[in-house]
Amino acid sequence: MNLKDQWRFVKSNMRRSKSRIFMTVLATAMSVAFLIVLASVGFGLHSTFIQDLLEDRTVTKIEIAGLEQDGNVQPITDKEIKEIEAIDEVKAVTRQQNLYQTPNYTLDNYSSQNQTVVAHFPSEIEAGLELTEGRLPEGSHEIVVGHHFLNHLAPTDVEVDDLYDENNVIKEKFQYDENLIGKQIEMEVAQYIEGKEQKESITLTITGIVEPPSKGWMEDQKVYTTEEVLNEIESFTNTPRGEIVMPDQSQPASIPKGYDAVYGFADSMDEINNISEILKEQNYLVYSVADEIKNINLVFTIAKIGLIFIGTIAIIIASIGIYNTMTMAVTERTPDIGIMKAIGAHPKKIKQIFLLESSYIGLIGAVIGTAVAYIISILLNITLPIIIESALEEQLPEGFQFSSIPLSLILISVTICLLVTIVSGLKPAKRATQIDVLKAMRREI
Fold first, then answer.
1. For residue range 270-279, what is the model confidence (pLDDT) as tens digits?
2. How far apart are alpha carbons 16 and 117 in whole angstroms?
3. Per-domain residue ranges for the chain?
4. Domain MacB-like periplasmic core spans what residues (predicted)?
5. What is the 8-class DSSP label of residue 396?
6. Which of 368, 101, 363 is nearest to 240 (CA)?
7. List of residues 6+ apart from 64 with CB closer than 8 A
8. Cβ 200 vs Cβ 136: under 8 Å
9. Across all residues in the chain, what is the average pLDDT?
10. d(Cα 347, Cα 353) in Å, to the nearest integer?
11. How many CB atoms lie within 10 A of CB 377?
12. How far apart are CA 431 and CA 425, in angstroms?
Protein backbone atom coordinates (compact mmCIF):
# COMPACT_ATOMS: atom_id res chain seq x y z
CA MET A 1 0.00 0.00 0.00
CA ASN A 2 1.64 3.21 -1.17
CA LEU A 3 1.23 6.65 0.37
CA LYS A 4 -1.48 7.67 -2.10
CA ASP A 5 -3.59 4.67 -1.15
CA GLN A 6 -3.05 5.40 2.52
CA TRP A 7 -4.31 8.98 2.03
CA ARG A 8 -7.38 7.67 0.18
CA PHE A 9 -8.10 5.24 3.00
CA VAL A 10 -7.67 7.96 5.68
CA LYS A 11 -9.97 10.44 3.91
CA SER A 12 -12.71 7.87 3.26
CA ASN A 13 -12.70 6.82 6.90
CA MET A 14 -12.71 10.42 8.14
CA ARG A 15 -15.85 11.08 6.09
CA ARG A 16 -17.67 8.38 8.07
CA SER A 17 -17.31 10.32 11.33
CA LYS A 18 -17.50 13.91 10.19
CA SER A 19 -18.99 15.35 13.37
CA ARG A 20 -16.40 13.75 15.65
CA ILE A 21 -13.53 14.79 13.37
CA PHE A 22 -14.98 18.30 13.14
CA MET A 23 -15.06 18.71 16.93
CA THR A 24 -11.53 17.35 17.25
CA VAL A 25 -10.20 19.72 14.57
CA LEU A 26 -12.09 22.59 16.22
CA ALA A 27 -10.50 21.87 19.61
CA THR A 28 -7.06 21.64 17.99
CA ALA A 29 -7.59 24.89 16.06
CA MET A 30 -8.71 26.71 19.22
CA SER A 31 -5.66 25.51 21.13
CA VAL A 32 -3.28 26.56 18.34
CA ALA A 33 -4.97 29.97 18.07
CA PHE A 34 -4.68 30.38 21.84
CA LEU A 35 -0.97 29.53 21.74
CA ILE A 36 -0.22 31.92 18.87
CA VAL A 37 -2.27 34.84 20.22
CA LEU A 38 -0.86 34.44 23.73
CA ALA A 39 2.76 34.34 22.51
CA SER A 40 2.10 37.13 19.96
CA VAL A 41 1.61 39.58 22.83
CA GLY A 42 5.17 38.92 23.94
CA PHE A 43 6.46 39.27 20.37
CA GLY A 44 4.42 42.45 19.80
CA LEU A 45 5.54 44.26 22.95
CA HIS A 46 9.12 43.15 22.34
CA SER A 47 9.18 44.52 18.79
CA THR A 48 7.55 47.77 19.97
CA PHE A 49 10.14 48.39 22.68
CA ILE A 50 13.07 47.49 20.44
CA GLN A 51 11.71 49.64 17.58
CA ASP A 52 11.35 52.54 19.99
CA LEU A 53 15.02 52.21 20.91
CA LEU A 54 16.21 51.65 17.35
CA GLU A 55 14.50 54.81 16.10
CA ASP A 56 16.78 56.86 18.34
CA ARG A 57 20.33 57.59 17.25
CA THR A 58 21.44 56.66 20.81
CA VAL A 59 21.21 52.99 19.82
CA THR A 60 24.43 53.47 17.85
CA LYS A 61 26.01 55.64 20.54
CA ILE A 62 28.48 54.71 23.27
CA GLU A 63 28.88 56.87 26.33
CA ILE A 64 32.56 56.98 27.29
CA ALA A 65 32.69 58.14 30.92
CA GLY A 66 36.43 58.08 31.45
CA LEU A 67 39.66 56.10 31.39
CA GLU A 68 40.65 53.98 34.38
CA GLN A 69 44.36 54.25 35.21
CA ASP A 70 46.00 52.93 38.40
CA GLY A 71 42.63 52.73 40.13
CA ASN A 72 41.68 56.30 39.24
CA VAL A 73 39.25 57.51 36.58
CA GLN A 74 40.74 60.11 34.26
CA PRO A 75 38.65 62.39 32.01
CA ILE A 76 38.83 61.91 28.27
CA THR A 77 41.19 64.33 26.54
CA ASP A 78 42.02 65.03 22.90
CA LYS A 79 44.72 62.32 23.08
CA GLU A 80 42.20 59.62 23.97
CA ILE A 81 39.70 60.93 21.41
CA LYS A 82 42.27 60.47 18.63
CA GLU A 83 42.86 56.90 19.81
CA ILE A 84 39.12 56.17 19.82
CA GLU A 85 38.64 57.74 16.39
CA ALA A 86 41.37 55.43 15.07
CA ILE A 87 39.23 52.34 15.77
CA ASP A 88 37.99 51.06 12.40
CA GLU A 89 34.25 50.89 13.11
CA VAL A 90 34.00 54.27 14.87
CA LYS A 91 32.12 56.76 12.70
CA ALA A 92 32.49 59.81 14.94
CA VAL A 93 33.41 60.87 18.46
CA THR A 94 31.48 63.83 19.87
CA ARG A 95 32.62 65.78 22.93
CA GLN A 96 31.09 68.46 25.08
CA GLN A 97 32.19 70.72 27.92
CA ASN A 98 29.77 72.19 30.42
CA LEU A 99 29.83 75.84 31.36
CA TYR A 100 30.15 76.11 35.16
CA GLN A 101 27.56 78.84 35.47
CA THR A 102 24.10 79.35 34.03
CA PRO A 103 24.14 82.47 31.83
CA ASN A 104 21.16 84.73 31.34
CA TYR A 105 20.01 85.03 27.72
CA THR A 106 18.12 88.11 26.53
CA LEU A 107 16.20 88.44 23.25
CA ASP A 108 14.29 91.68 22.78
CA ASN A 109 12.34 92.02 26.05
CA TYR A 110 12.42 88.26 26.72
CA SER A 111 14.96 86.40 28.85
CA SER A 112 15.76 82.98 30.31
CA GLN A 113 18.54 81.17 32.10
CA ASN A 114 19.77 78.06 30.33
CA GLN A 115 22.42 75.42 30.75
CA THR A 116 25.18 76.00 28.22
CA VAL A 117 27.48 73.41 26.69
CA VAL A 118 30.45 73.78 24.38
CA ALA A 119 30.00 71.38 21.48
CA HIS A 120 32.41 70.18 18.80
CA PHE A 121 30.18 70.71 15.80
CA PRO A 122 32.27 68.91 13.12
CA SER A 123 31.99 65.65 15.04
CA GLU A 124 28.28 66.31 15.75
CA ILE A 125 27.71 66.54 12.00
CA GLU A 126 29.51 63.22 11.44
CA ALA A 127 27.45 61.63 14.23
CA GLY A 128 24.21 62.62 12.50
CA LEU A 129 22.95 65.48 14.66
CA GLU A 130 19.77 66.80 13.05
CA LEU A 131 18.02 70.13 13.33
CA THR A 132 14.33 70.84 13.05
CA GLU A 133 15.21 74.06 11.24
CA GLY A 134 18.20 76.24 10.47
CA ARG A 135 21.82 75.12 10.21
CA LEU A 136 24.76 74.30 12.44
CA PRO A 137 27.14 77.12 13.49
CA GLU A 138 29.85 78.11 11.07
CA GLY A 139 31.16 81.22 12.83
CA SER A 140 32.71 81.56 16.30
CA HIS A 141 29.73 83.45 17.77
CA GLU A 142 26.95 81.36 16.31
CA ILE A 143 24.90 78.94 18.38
CA VAL A 144 22.13 76.38 18.15
CA VAL A 145 19.53 75.95 20.85
CA GLY A 146 17.57 73.00 22.21
CA HIS A 147 14.10 72.22 20.89
CA HIS A 148 12.43 73.57 24.06
CA PHE A 149 14.54 76.73 24.44
CA LEU A 150 11.69 78.85 23.09
CA ASN A 151 9.27 77.52 25.72
CA HIS A 152 11.32 79.09 28.52
CA LEU A 153 11.75 82.57 27.08
CA ALA A 154 9.75 84.78 29.42
CA PRO A 155 8.85 88.48 28.98
CA THR A 156 10.69 90.71 31.43
CA ASP A 157 7.80 93.17 31.84
CA VAL A 158 5.24 90.68 33.23
CA GLU A 159 4.88 89.78 36.90
CA VAL A 160 5.86 86.20 37.71
CA ASP A 161 2.49 85.52 39.35
CA ASP A 162 0.72 86.40 36.09
CA LEU A 163 3.23 84.69 33.82
CA TYR A 164 2.64 80.98 34.45
CA ASP A 165 -0.47 78.80 34.30
CA GLU A 166 -1.46 76.05 36.75
CA ASN A 167 0.97 73.63 35.06
CA ASN A 168 3.88 76.03 35.60
CA VAL A 169 4.05 76.73 31.86
CA ILE A 170 4.28 80.22 30.37
CA LYS A 171 0.82 81.26 29.26
CA GLU A 172 0.36 81.22 25.51
CA LYS A 173 -0.28 84.98 25.28
CA PHE A 174 3.10 85.70 26.88
CA GLN A 175 5.14 83.25 24.80
CA TYR A 176 7.68 84.44 22.24
CA ASP A 177 5.98 84.00 18.87
CA GLU A 178 8.71 84.90 16.36
CA ASN A 179 11.16 82.67 14.51
CA LEU A 180 14.44 82.28 16.39
CA ILE A 181 16.58 81.57 13.34
CA GLY A 182 18.91 84.47 12.58
CA LYS A 183 18.06 86.33 15.80
CA GLN A 184 20.83 87.94 17.81
CA ILE A 185 20.71 87.07 21.49
CA GLU A 186 22.72 88.45 24.40
CA MET A 187 24.52 86.00 26.68
CA GLU A 188 25.24 87.55 30.07
CA VAL A 189 27.85 85.90 32.30
CA ALA A 190 28.89 87.06 35.78
CA GLN A 191 31.90 87.06 38.08
CA TYR A 192 32.88 88.64 41.39
CA ILE A 193 35.87 90.88 40.88
CA GLU A 194 37.36 92.54 43.95
CA GLY A 195 34.24 91.61 45.89
CA LYS A 196 31.81 93.16 43.46
CA GLU A 197 29.65 91.38 40.92
CA GLN A 198 30.59 92.21 37.36
CA LYS A 199 28.75 91.14 34.25
CA GLU A 200 29.87 90.60 30.69
CA SER A 201 27.56 90.50 27.68
CA ILE A 202 28.40 88.49 24.55
CA THR A 203 26.32 88.82 21.38
CA LEU A 204 25.47 85.51 19.72
CA THR A 205 23.44 84.54 16.64
CA ILE A 206 21.00 81.64 16.67
CA THR A 207 21.47 79.55 13.51
CA GLY A 208 19.48 76.41 14.28
CA ILE A 209 17.18 74.49 16.59
CA VAL A 210 18.07 70.92 17.60
CA GLU A 211 15.59 68.12 16.97
CA PRO A 212 13.55 67.12 20.05
CA PRO A 213 14.74 64.27 22.30
CA SER A 214 13.50 60.82 21.32
CA LYS A 215 11.53 60.49 24.54
CA GLY A 216 8.45 62.69 24.58
CA TRP A 217 8.73 63.48 28.29
CA MET A 218 12.31 64.85 27.95
CA GLU A 219 13.10 68.52 27.40
CA ASP A 220 16.12 70.09 25.79
CA GLN A 221 16.48 73.80 26.53
CA LYS A 222 20.27 73.90 26.36
CA VAL A 223 22.37 76.37 24.41
CA TYR A 224 25.12 74.82 22.28
CA THR A 225 28.03 77.19 21.73
CA THR A 226 31.61 77.12 20.45
CA GLU A 227 35.02 76.90 22.10
CA GLU A 228 35.79 80.47 21.03
CA VAL A 229 32.91 81.71 23.18
CA LEU A 230 34.17 79.57 26.09
CA ASN A 231 37.63 81.15 25.77
CA GLU A 232 36.03 84.59 25.89
CA ILE A 233 34.08 83.68 29.02
CA GLU A 234 37.15 82.21 30.74
CA SER A 235 39.11 85.33 29.87
CA PHE A 236 36.49 87.45 31.68
CA THR A 237 35.93 85.18 34.72
CA ASN A 238 39.58 84.10 34.99
CA THR A 239 38.34 80.64 36.02
CA PRO A 240 38.01 77.29 34.25
CA ARG A 241 34.68 76.90 32.40
CA GLY A 242 33.54 80.31 33.65
CA GLU A 243 33.08 79.19 37.26
CA ILE A 244 31.80 81.96 39.57
CA VAL A 245 33.93 82.66 42.67
CA MET A 246 31.99 84.24 45.53
CA PRO A 247 33.70 87.00 47.59
CA ASP A 248 34.22 84.67 50.56
CA GLN A 249 35.64 81.84 48.42
CA SER A 250 39.20 81.17 47.35
CA GLN A 251 40.20 80.85 43.74
CA PRO A 252 39.20 77.38 42.47
CA ALA A 253 41.90 74.89 41.72
CA SER A 254 42.52 74.16 38.07
CA ILE A 255 40.40 71.29 36.83
CA PRO A 256 41.88 68.38 34.85
CA LYS A 257 41.81 68.99 31.13
CA GLY A 258 39.19 66.92 29.42
CA TYR A 259 35.58 66.71 28.36
CA ASP A 260 32.44 66.29 30.45
CA ALA A 261 30.59 64.18 27.89
CA VAL A 262 32.19 61.99 25.21
CA TYR A 263 30.20 59.75 22.87
CA GLY A 264 31.34 57.34 20.18
CA PHE A 265 29.10 56.60 17.20
CA ALA A 266 28.92 53.71 14.74
CA ASP A 267 26.67 52.68 11.86
CA SER A 268 25.06 49.63 13.45
CA MET A 269 24.38 47.98 16.78
CA ASP A 270 26.75 45.10 15.95
CA GLU A 271 29.57 47.58 15.44
CA ILE A 272 28.69 49.24 18.76
CA ASN A 273 29.10 45.88 20.51
CA ASN A 274 32.52 45.38 18.90
CA ILE A 275 33.66 48.91 19.78
CA SER A 276 32.47 48.48 23.38
CA GLU A 277 34.53 45.32 23.77
CA ILE A 278 37.65 47.02 22.37
CA LEU A 279 37.26 50.06 24.65
CA LYS A 280 36.61 47.91 27.73
CA GLU A 281 39.81 45.99 27.02
CA GLN A 282 41.62 49.35 26.99
CA ASN A 283 40.14 50.24 30.44
CA TYR A 284 37.61 52.78 29.18
CA LEU A 285 34.40 53.09 31.15
CA VAL A 286 31.65 52.70 28.55
CA TYR A 287 27.91 52.29 28.35
CA SER A 288 25.62 51.91 25.34
CA VAL A 289 21.95 51.28 24.67
CA ALA A 290 23.10 48.04 23.06
CA ASP A 291 23.80 46.73 26.58
CA GLU A 292 20.25 47.65 27.57
CA ILE A 293 18.85 45.97 24.45
CA LYS A 294 20.66 42.74 25.43
CA ASN A 295 18.89 42.78 28.79
CA ILE A 296 15.53 43.61 27.16
CA ASN A 297 15.99 40.76 24.66
CA LEU A 298 16.80 38.35 27.48
CA VAL A 299 13.72 39.35 29.50
CA PHE A 300 11.37 39.13 26.53
CA THR A 301 12.89 35.84 25.36
CA ILE A 302 12.15 34.32 28.77
CA ALA A 303 8.63 35.80 28.67
CA LYS A 304 7.97 34.44 25.17
CA ILE A 305 9.18 30.97 26.13
CA GLY A 306 6.85 31.08 29.15
CA LEU A 307 3.88 32.14 27.02
CA ILE A 308 4.59 29.43 24.44
CA PHE A 309 4.81 26.88 27.26
CA ILE A 310 1.42 27.98 28.64
CA GLY A 311 -0.08 27.82 25.15
CA THR A 312 1.38 24.34 24.66
CA ILE A 313 -0.64 23.15 27.67
CA ALA A 314 -3.79 24.04 25.73
CA ILE A 315 -2.62 21.89 22.80
CA ILE A 316 -1.85 19.02 25.16
CA ILE A 317 -5.39 19.28 26.53
CA ALA A 318 -6.73 19.23 22.97
CA SER A 319 -4.63 16.12 22.30
CA ILE A 320 -6.92 14.20 24.67
CA GLY A 321 -9.68 14.67 22.08
CA ILE A 322 -7.37 13.42 19.34
CA TYR A 323 -6.51 10.36 21.43
CA ASN A 324 -10.19 9.58 21.94
CA THR A 325 -10.95 10.14 18.26
CA MET A 326 -8.17 7.80 17.15
CA THR A 327 -9.15 5.18 19.74
CA MET A 328 -12.71 5.24 18.42
CA ALA A 329 -11.38 5.05 14.86
CA VAL A 330 -9.43 1.88 15.69
CA THR A 331 -12.54 0.35 17.27
CA GLU A 332 -14.81 1.22 14.34
CA ARG A 333 -12.33 0.04 11.71
CA THR A 334 -11.48 -3.31 13.27
CA PRO A 335 -12.92 -5.28 10.32
CA ASP A 336 -10.97 -3.16 7.86
CA ILE A 337 -7.79 -3.74 9.84
CA GLY A 338 -8.49 -7.45 9.87
CA ILE A 339 -8.94 -7.50 6.08
CA MET A 340 -5.69 -5.57 5.57
CA LYS A 341 -3.83 -8.00 7.80
CA ALA A 342 -5.44 -10.96 6.02
CA ILE A 343 -4.21 -9.83 2.63
CA GLY A 344 -0.69 -9.31 4.01
CA ALA A 345 -0.50 -5.67 5.09
CA HIS A 346 2.56 -5.07 7.24
CA PRO A 347 1.85 -3.82 10.82
CA LYS A 348 4.08 -0.79 10.14
CA LYS A 349 1.79 0.22 7.27
CA ILE A 350 -1.28 -0.06 9.48
CA LYS A 351 0.41 1.99 12.19
CA GLN A 352 1.46 4.55 9.57
CA ILE A 353 -2.16 4.95 8.38
CA PHE A 354 -3.42 5.93 11.84
CA LEU A 355 -0.45 8.22 12.52
CA LEU A 356 -1.12 9.83 9.17
CA GLU A 357 -4.73 10.45 10.18
CA SER A 358 -3.81 12.01 13.54
CA SER A 359 -1.20 14.19 11.79
CA TYR A 360 -3.79 15.25 9.24
CA ILE A 361 -6.18 16.31 12.00
CA GLY A 362 -3.38 18.26 13.66
CA LEU A 363 -2.34 19.93 10.42
CA ILE A 364 -5.89 21.05 9.58
CA GLY A 365 -6.31 22.36 13.13
CA ALA A 366 -2.98 24.21 12.92
CA VAL A 367 -3.89 25.89 9.62
CA ILE A 368 -7.32 26.99 10.85
CA GLY A 369 -5.91 28.08 14.21
CA THR A 370 -3.21 30.16 12.53
CA ALA A 371 -5.77 31.95 10.35
CA VAL A 372 -7.96 32.67 13.38
CA ALA A 373 -4.92 33.91 15.34
CA TYR A 374 -4.08 36.42 12.59
CA ILE A 375 -7.63 37.76 12.66
CA ILE A 376 -7.59 38.07 16.46
CA SER A 377 -4.16 39.75 16.32
CA ILE A 378 -5.41 42.39 13.87
CA LEU A 379 -8.47 43.06 16.02
CA LEU A 380 -6.30 43.38 19.14
CA ASN A 381 -4.03 45.93 17.50
CA ILE A 382 -7.03 47.97 16.34
CA THR A 383 -9.32 47.84 19.38
CA LEU A 384 -7.01 47.68 22.43
CA PRO A 385 -5.24 51.02 21.73
CA ILE A 386 -8.65 52.70 21.37
CA ILE A 387 -9.87 51.20 24.65
CA ILE A 388 -6.67 52.06 26.57
CA GLU A 389 -6.47 55.60 25.19
CA SER A 390 -10.12 56.17 26.12
CA ALA A 391 -9.65 54.78 29.61
CA LEU A 392 -6.32 56.46 30.42
CA GLU A 393 -6.83 59.56 28.25
CA GLU A 394 -3.25 59.25 27.01
CA GLN A 395 -1.92 58.81 23.51
CA LEU A 396 0.03 55.60 22.93
CA PRO A 397 3.29 55.84 20.96
CA GLU A 398 2.89 55.75 17.19
CA GLY A 399 3.19 52.24 15.80
CA PHE A 400 2.57 50.60 19.18
CA GLN A 401 1.77 46.89 18.72
CA PHE A 402 0.17 44.63 21.28
CA SER A 403 0.34 41.58 19.07
CA SER A 404 2.83 40.52 16.42
CA ILE A 405 2.95 37.12 14.69
CA PRO A 406 6.33 36.47 13.06
CA LEU A 407 6.94 33.44 10.84
CA SER A 408 9.05 31.84 13.58
CA LEU A 409 6.04 31.79 15.94
CA ILE A 410 3.91 30.09 13.27
CA LEU A 411 6.57 27.44 12.67
CA ILE A 412 6.99 26.82 16.41
CA SER A 413 3.23 26.52 16.95
CA VAL A 414 2.64 24.20 13.98
CA THR A 415 5.61 22.02 14.98
CA ILE A 416 4.34 21.71 18.57
CA CYS A 417 0.84 20.90 17.32
CA LEU A 418 2.05 18.19 14.92
CA LEU A 419 4.33 16.61 17.53
CA VAL A 420 1.55 16.52 20.14
CA THR A 421 -1.00 15.08 17.68
CA ILE A 422 1.42 12.41 16.48
CA VAL A 423 2.21 11.41 20.05
CA SER A 424 -1.54 11.31 20.76
CA GLY A 425 -2.03 8.87 17.90
CA LEU A 426 0.85 6.56 18.80
CA LYS A 427 -0.98 4.33 21.29
CA PRO A 428 -4.17 3.91 19.20
CA ALA A 429 -1.97 3.19 16.15
CA LYS A 430 0.01 0.59 18.07
CA ARG A 431 -3.22 -0.95 19.29
CA ALA A 432 -4.38 -1.28 15.67
CA THR A 433 -1.31 -3.39 14.83
CA GLN A 434 -2.03 -5.77 17.72
CA ILE A 435 -5.58 -6.70 16.64
CA ASP A 436 -6.07 -10.40 16.03
CA VAL A 437 -7.10 -11.13 12.45
CA LEU A 438 -9.73 -13.78 13.25
CA LYS A 439 -11.38 -11.69 15.96
CA ALA A 440 -11.32 -8.65 13.68
CA MET A 441 -13.06 -10.63 10.94
CA ARG A 442 -15.74 -11.58 13.48
CA ARG A 443 -16.00 -7.83 14.35
CA GLU A 444 -14.49 -8.44 17.76
CA ILE A 445 -11.53 -6.77 19.38
1. 788 888 889 9
2. 81
3. 3-55+295-441, 92-265
4. 22-230
5. P
6. 101
7. 76, 84, 262, 263, 264, 279, 284, 285, 286
8. no
9. 83
10. 10
11. 22
12. 10
